[in-house]
Amino acid sequence: MKIINKIKILIMIMLSIVVMGNINIYTVFAEEKIASGIYEVSNEVYHDTEIGMSMARSYLKDTMTMKITKNEVLYTIGFTGTDYMENYRVKVNDVEVPVERVDGDGIVTLKVSATSLSDELKACIYVGPMGRDVEFGIIPKLETMSLIESIEEESTEETTENSAIEEIQDNEIMPISENNNTEENSSISKVILFGGVAILVIGIVCTIMLKRKK
């Protein structure tokens, strides 16, 4: 009986691990689902020296905006101390990209496009008194995101259906999911269910084998 009890305890532990692991997977999915809209967000700077960090912080406004849509993240970044700086550039993942510049009230504002919130941003500015470029990282603090305006985007369901029709032969249309979140939740539930069933089956088999040995 002691052996059977140990097996039962082991099964319960394994089942708990399966359930908790899948809950963590669900949390990751939820974090990645940020609604389309315009957000204000605080930022941090990065430079490999303390002096560089201090200078970068003095150049960059401590908040910026992000316009998030399905296919793009549009950053609006403001810089101060513009009397001594020129030739503003931005790199996304170490590649220099086009920017839209707006000047006003001693502030230079740059609009730059990225494809993901995980893309790395770097500012590159020529500083006159130093006679050289200064480059530093710009890090959005996503935990500080504050929604300014929601953006309602058109559903991609119709586009998806049209693509499916073109690909499927003999006019047979495959079922198309109307809700991505439902698919994710269903997949997670199936993993939990199958994992639990597998563990229970293993436990039952072990119990039967032990009884036969007795």
Automatic annotation (TrEMBL):
It is found in: Cell envelope. Signal peptide: none annotated. The keyword Protein transport does not apply. CDD domains: NEAT (cd06920). SUPFAM superfamilies: NEAT domain-like. Keywords: Membrane, Signal, Transmembrane, Transmembrane helix. Pfam families: NEAT. This is NEAT domain-containing protein. Residues 34-158 form the NEAT domain. The chain crosses the membrane at residues 9-29, 191-210. One of its GO terms (cellular component) is cell envelope.
